[in-house]
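Quiz preparation item.
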């Protein structure tokens, strides 16, 4: 599997990743680090406590990492949580709606990590 094929599998924006990372070597390096990063775990922990500051910070971190890697779907989902808990923004979602969105993000993140594992195995 090539890095482009991985991006096709995970619904990522390969062209965006190339614009940011400038080379397949760097994309490969950082997409593989996503799997072992703690951004998903941080967001899950913040969601368990519904701590507004932790939710904002962890969602913002995930959004940044995923945007740089061209993972638009994950970045967009994390952006929703970021804006929901951005200091000064009024809440629009109920806690249950936030939990449902966090669960969807966790599933998408896990699916992405699983695809990255398959990519690594193919090398």
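Solution:
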């Amino acid at each position: 599997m090539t890095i482009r094929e991985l991006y096709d599998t995970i619904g990522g924006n390969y062209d965006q990743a190339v614009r940011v990372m400038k080379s397949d070597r760097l994309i490969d390096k950082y997409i593989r680090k996503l799997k072992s990063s703690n951004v998903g775990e941080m967001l899950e922990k913040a969601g368990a406590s519904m701590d507004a500051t932790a939710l904002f910070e962890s969602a913002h971190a995930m959004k940044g990492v995923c945007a740089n890697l061209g993972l638009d779907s994950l970045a967009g989902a994390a952006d929703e949580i970021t804006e929901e808990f951005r200091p000064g923004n009024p809440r629009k979602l109920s806690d249950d709606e936030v939990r449902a969105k966090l669960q969807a993000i966790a599933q998408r993140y896990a699916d992405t990590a699983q695809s990255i594992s398959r990519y690594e195995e193919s090398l």
